[in-house]
Every structure is written in C-alpha cells, then in structure tokens.
Amino acid sequence: MRSAVIRRLAFTALFFSLASGLAACGGLVKSCTMVAASGLNVTVVDDATGQPICDATVTAADGSFTETLEETGCSFGGARERPGTYTVSAAKAGYTTASQSGVVVTADECHVRPVTVTLRLAR
User: What is the DSSP string of 85-104?
Assistant: First the structure.
C-alpha cells in the first residue's frame, strides 16, 4: 500500500515537472481559434479634414492575387488568413487614388498577424 502511494506521488511530481517545463518553453501545444482573421485592416480618410471615408473602394494585391476588401463600420478588412506582401489602394470619385506598397502580413502557427493601414485621399 505504501509503495502505491509513493509511486502515485512520484508520478504526480513528474507530471507537474514536465508541465511546468513545457510552460517555461512556451509549450508544445497551442490551441487555435476557428475564426478567420483579417490580415489587413484599412481605414481611409480625407487628407484635408482627417474625416473617415466609408464608401471608398479598397483593394489589396499580392502578385496575381487581388481582393476588394470588405467595408464594415467605415473600416475595410481582407486577406483573411493569407500572409503576403501587399499593395493596398483606395479610390473614390472626386479624389486621387492613394496606395501603399510593401505591406507585409505574417502569420504565427494559428493565424495571420493583422496589419493596420491608413490611406489618405486628396481632392
């Protein structure tokens, strides 16, 4: 009976030792969410006033890949779970098109790491 208790204590100590070692190393298992994250989050503003422009057309291009970003509450999102190096452009009638190239979206073991871009449209 006493040897069973000693074995149980030894097993428990070994378990906690391994668990704390994994935690110290960042762990080997990561739990990822099932949500598709946007790699690009873009706001478009009037260059003169700084006011948001909610009805612009915003696109992202990476090589042959091109996407029109979705507008939600005056901000634009896209490149869902797609790392890459993008040129992001915004256009609206009455304004000069604005773009930013070299926007790099990276990913970790679960999702892309969102990048925020602000494009300023001038009249």
Answer: EEEEEEE-TTSB-EEEEEEE
